[in-house]
Design a protein that fits this description.
This protein is of the alpha+beta class. Strands 4-3-2-1-5-8-7-6 form an eight-stranded mixed β-sheet, sandwiched between helices. Helix 3 packs across helix 6. The N and C termini lie close together (7 Å).
Length: 247
């Protein structure tokens, strides 16, 4: 059982978490943020030795614990773990091979972002929080089939290019990041942005933020992300709900 950490300086708590604990923290917090389409959704977390931590296909992100994690090699083969790796891991293998700088890759079907994926449109940015991940969002509208097919995975990787966010048309989202912390900010912000844009649309539309303002806010996040408390606060909330998540 894990005690709820003190609200210490930002970054101190996250620095105490092992890589498996960080992945579980990401999955739990993002499930709360809306990445909750049953057992769908997969995360890979590259380790210094070239292996990957992966969430198993059998469990929802809400019930994931450290003891449930799988370890796989660069070919997508399980090295250790008591569960199974999703066949859709092909997408991650192609991503990590094509962009070696990527440490975390995740794919899911979050509620509001998937609504926008169905429209093949990027949700407008109307507020400060929606701007934190920047305005660049790839739209992969040529999706045809399932992401475990190599051709679809390669096309999706080409579509995202050097960006860290993509909507897969009529399917879901793709997020890539240089750390677990970055992955949380990009993924949670996209879902917030998508929800807020839908809410504004119900009023007949609104006035989006200027690109220059969005760029300024995103640049601030990039420069100061380790000073922002949102992720650690979200982890503390998950520990309050389930003190055993790091078991």
């Amino acid at each position: 059982m894990n005690a709820i950490p003190n609200r210490s300086r930002v970054g101190e708590f996250l620095a105490t978490l092992t890589p498996p604990q960080q992945l579980v923290a990401l999955a739990r917090t993002l499930h709360t943020e809306g990445y909750n389409d049953h057992t769908t959704g997969h995360i890979t977390f590259k380790q210094p030795d070239g292996t990957f931590l992966v969430n198993p296909v059998e469990l929802t992100w809400a019930e994931l614990r450290v003891s449930d994690l799988m370890v796989m090699n660069q070919d997508g083969e399980a090295i250790s773990g008591k569960h199974s790796i999703t066949p859709a891991i092909t997408l991650h293998r192609v991503l990590h091979r094509s962009r070696p700088e990527i440490v975390v890759a995740l794919h899911g079907h979050p509620h509001w972002s998937t609504v926008w994926a169905a429209t093949h449109q990027a949700p407008p940015i109307y507020d400060q929080t929606s701007a934190l991940a920047g305005r660049h969002l790839a739209i992969f509208s040529e999706y045809d089939g399932v992401v475990e097919e190599t051709s679809n995975a390669e096309s999706a990787v080409q579509a995202i290019g050097g960006m860290h966010l993509a909507l897969l048309a009529n399917h879901g989202v793709l997020v890539v990041a240089e750390s677990i912390l970055h992955a949380y900010f990009w993924a949670s912000t996209l879902e917030w942005r998508s929800r807020r844009a839908w809410e504004v649309s119900q009023l007949g539309g609104g006035i989006p933020l200027k690109d220059s303002v969005v760029d300024q806010l995103h640049d601030y996040v990039l420069a100061n992300i380790h000073l922002l408390p949102q992720f650690e606060a979200a982890i503390r909330e998950e520990i309050r709900r389930d003190p055993t998540l790091f078991d």
